[in-house]
Here is the input.
Amino acid sequence: MEKIAGLITSHHSSSKRLLNILIQNSYLDQIKEKFDHYDLLDIEYKPFLRFHIADIFNQVFDGKIQQLFQETLKDRNQGAFVIGPEKMDQSKYDTDFLVKVSTALTHLVGTPNFDAMAGKFYARFEVKHTDNSDSYLRKAYKKLDLHTDGTYVKEKTDWLLMMKMKEENANGGESVLLHLDDWEDLETFYNDPIAKENFIWGSPKSKNVEYKIEHPVFFTDQDGKPVISYIDQFPEPRSLEQGLFLNRLSESLENSKKHIAFKLPPGYSIFSNNYFLLHGRKAFQSSPNLYRELLRQRGTFYQ
Here is the structure.
């Protein structure tokens, strides 16, 4: 791996599959100075500005960071990285700046899909002590089982970026990843005939997607390797066989001994390939003052 000035790169403490990227603060301060010229609303309303700030970000690192991102995400042996400041300063790096950073990161690898839940190219959502939503996403005291994104939409979803914007009074809630090639039961489930059947996939009302789609749980990529599109809450089994297959699949994924689990600090992002890396979250410990704000972007690679 080529050394890039301004970045400190290493294997993440939780797994050698996961790259850890720290941005030196002097470089991040350069980026902030440049980004401060662009209002967040303008970036939301003018799509071309998103590509402009991505280019600014890349040029601060001599045009080398784009290749690092793309190669890491597409590399079957890795497929994900954690990125954030060498030292986080929430008084300096506010949430508007973090949205801009996340936008620069994603636009260096591809174009984000429209997020119907939020009505823009990214979504921000909170996890708190109380919740009345229709999805596990915001339910703090239920673990978020391993899944991939985009199972219920027509658009391709090659990658996913999740950034932690803020967090207060949070114990538990660790991020969880599982690389498909590390999963002990991959061959068993991938070779099950039901895995290739079309399943119906819907979504709760909060997702603002009115249609349903059909696709299998498992596919094969261009290199002939297994990839997955799965989430536990949204499939609608049409037979006993499909329902039992999904139940076995869920139990196997959750009981795997190959999970990667770690705390993600505020200001940091997980950027992952959505086809061979599943993600989830452990449950939080109960706290009336629990607060976490997350940002999500997901989309397709440049061809």
Notes: The chain has a mean pLDDT of 95.
